[in-house]
Amino acid sequence: MAESNAERPRLAAAGLVRWDTVVSTLLIVLLLFSFGFVHDFGDSLNLSFLIGNTLPIALIALPMTMLVVSGEIDLSVGSTAGLSGAVMGALWNDGMAIQTIIPICLLLGLVCGFINGLLVTRLGLPSLAVTIGTMAAYRGIAQIVLGSNSVTDFPQQYLDFGSGRIAGTFIPDAAIPWAVLVLIAVVVLHATGIGRSLFAIGASEEAAYFVGIRVKRLRLSMFVATGFVSALTGVFWVLHYASARYDNATGLELSVIAAVLLGGVDFNGGRGTLGGAVAGVFLLGTLQNTMSLINVSAQSQIVVTGVLLVISVLGPHLARQLTT
What we know:
The chain is mostly helical. 76% of the residues lie in helices and 0% in strands.
């Protein structure tokens, strides 16, 4: 019993310095500061703008968290989203019904993810190198498909969903299906055998294989899921910004990875929580929105984002050192 009591302060300290707890606390502090001292931050239009602009990152962060937990990464998510949007615009220009176009775009995302996963899991290529290549390839295909055209005349009811708000609130309509996806992702990663297997693979691929986990199949499924959600994000991007262009979502992959790592997901795999990743997404989004409102230059915002990315890698390491 005495030994158990001696352990309690150490465990309590570990909970306090968990990096996802730190990030969640920083998000709360930033929100309190912004609401209290930044003009127009609490305006319903600004809050809706903040959430709507953050949702593309928040969507892809869900499967990306699982992928990074398993020890892999996908840098092609922004290009997959852009390709999905370009195909959406091209097919709409050709007169196809929007109800048919959207499933085609989602199927395209599955194919893009499957190609990434196949190259990594079956050919043994590193995911970083593979997805840098497909990032360029998918973006190039998007430019071939749509060229420099911009398609804007999508059905108004779909555009209203992409940019509309729940009546009487600042919450975008699209936040509701996103919340459902968050719930599903949390259950899968933290309350099922699939999630436990992903953590095991990230911690030690060899050990996971020897205990019977289908390492290649599970990683392949994560790449496919990431491709699917990236394509879904591309559809949302078009409807939210009312424009389909080949360069939609350019640079989105860096924002997603920065937010996920900022949330405490270990780049080497095996550690992290979806709650921390979501907190990282909204910390980054809120910080960028606040800096814009106080007229911080775009260049300075990039510097701050870069510093946060370094902190996101260093911070969890220091937190673990304090608890061991």
